[in-house]
Write a structure and sequence with these properties.
alpha/beta; globular; about 30% helix; 5-stranded antiparallel β-sheet; about 500 residues
Amino acid sequence: MSDLSRSPAPKPRVVIIGCGFGGLEAAKALSHAPVEIVVIDRTNHHLFQPLLYQVATAGLPAPAIAGPIRHILRKQIARGNLTVLMGEVTSIDTASSCVVIDGGEHIHYDHLIVAAGATHSYFGRDDWAKYAPGLKTLGDAFTIRRRVLTAFEQAERENDPAKREPWLTFAIVGAGPTGVEMAGTLAEIAQQTLSAEFRRIDSRRARVILLEGAGRVLGTFPEDLSERAKDQLAGLGAEVLTGAKVTNITAFGIHYDITETSPDGTPTTVSHFLPSRTVVWAAGVAASPLGRALAKSTRCQLDRAGRVVVQPDLTVPDYPNIYVVGDLASAKSYLDPQNPTPVPGVSPGAKQMGRKAAFNIMRRLQGKDSQSFRYIDYGNLATIGKRAAVAVLDLPYINKRVKFSGFSAWLFWLFVHVYFLIGFRNRTVVLMDWAWAYFTSQRHARVFPDPHALEPNAMVVRVTPPSTPPVSVSAVNQPVTTSAAGNTGTAPGQAAPAR
């Protein structure tokens, strides 16, 4: 066994699983505490996920939004109270207070912070993943970048206009912030970046289609900002389909249902097929599988998205030394103790939870009671494209909400995201790249490895698609399916709401 399998006296050991926003903030907050810290992550880097779509769309190189964990925490490592391990936690043994990582190594903890994050949810249709990659990791971003750029290359090779059209049709499923950002940026690439780089095709004829199961885009934003976002998307050349429930995704396109009103006023569900060789999934999020492992060991409750339902102080019920933070936690804010409110799954929430977990551990070491988590919500931001964004800011101390959109919101969005990047070099690189892209509309990160070497079995290049169903097939008097807000599951056989 490793020397980490037992706790060395006199310092208690805090194990942090995951070095995303929550885990990194917890490690930083504990850096001067009288504890030994062990950070475990399945990768060697911390990723600034809000800008991941920029890597996927060739706007930024990966090092601009990712930094090596060991470099970020180098001062704590040099101080001698922090160990970083790259590995995947496979189980949590609460009986012996150990976490088990790949290879069977046991690591003892006195206090545990689980910040394992979230993954994609395909609502029970995991077979869609190979046709519609999501966007959570650098690997996902590289996959999407390669597929987008390859689609234009394949369109250039195709002589038949009918066969070329699916290559020039890009579908994004889900109109939350990620989907809106992807749709706007892909439209910019087609309309501006690539407009003079092909001879056989006109990239400006490409279609970028955003499918959303609910009645509007950006459902967590006020309705007026949702309408402005939709208008700005249209101005960039993207199409928005709301009320579209995806029923199937294949290598050749998307099947979806949309409810229409027949001439006699009867709601009618009409089935459509959208030929597209490039689909991006931005519709569903599910908690890390580690939540189920923790539930198995502690018998804690999970919500419908697989998140751990935590106590007010972010601990697991009956386990006051185990904290769950970030996207894996189903947590509430106790700003008003009599009326707790759910904490949204956004990076500010994860950061605040990581700091509060560290704070409560230090209080427990001092023999004090832990405190309830209080989330400060400063609002929401979403960028749509160059000079286009929407913003809603909550000013807690004066109890005022400010809403704005367009160029001013885009400038504010840019400032906020650059400010919160890790490291001075990252901020400088991003500002330079964005300045260049702003004035030239160029994206020089448009490179990718040989696709055949990466996915020899998944790349569908010159294959002729099968005969498709009619573009519209009416299904009169079928039940109308509506999409709900939040991360909800869909039973097998039902249409997955496109969010």
